[in-house]
Amino acid sequence: MSKLFKVFLAVLAIVIAILGAMGGYETSRRIKYPVAYSDLIVEYAAKNDLDPCLVMAVIKAESNFVPEAHSGFAGGLMQLTEETAEWTANDMGLIEDYDYMDPETNIKLGCHYLKHLIDIYGNTDTALAAYNGGMGNVASWLEDSDCSDDGVTLKYIPFAETRHYVDKVNDNWENYKTMEPVEDN
Predict the structure, then answer these.
(1) How many helices (H) and strands (E) does the chain have?
(2) Which of 43, 62, 83, 161 is the catalytic position?
């Protein structure tokens, strides 16, 4: 075997190792940041002028893409309460019976509600705080100078769960934005 051929094989082995490591990294990201219902997410995000990666980030934080997930009184992919689902359905003009736990309906209602909050607050982080901590709490925080300097953005969120939720969704959002698009897992 010639010296040049040995160098070629060594370089090839290094390239294969790097590509394998990169593929392993991307595979591990796909496991940590799953995507399901992407067609529905893209459809209802577009209808509500939302970034589909933000919707994925909320779903990841709320249910980790488990459609039958429940937390307290909330349920489904986007963890809507019956009260929020009912208000949102009425706001959308949905009079017929609906199952807010159905993945499509949950995404449809969740996207509409998230857009509603963003429209109200004009700030995604404040909207996410309201999505998790409730609009009443956010209203009082925006009036509190310890929490907000301008009545629009929150510099401090008193509820640790909500503070961590906003950080988690933003972290998820950044990760989803950098991932290559793929079909549902």
Answers:
(1) 8, 3
(2) 62
110 shares a domain with 68: yes
Answer whether 0.70 is exceeded by the pTM: yes
Instruction: Provide the number of structural domains found in the chain.
Output: 2
The CATH number linked to 89 is: 1.10.530.10
Question: How far apart are alpha carbons 86 and 110 in whole angstroms?
Answer: 11
CA neighbor of 158 nearest in space, from 171, 175, 144, 177: 144
Q: What is the pLDDT of residues 44-72, one digit of tens each?
A: 999 999 999 999 999 999 999 999 999 88
Please report whether residue 184 resides in a domain: no
Residue 137: helix, strand or coil by DSSP? helix
pLDDT at 185: 47
Look up 26 and say whether it is catalytic: no
Same domain, 60 and 85: yes
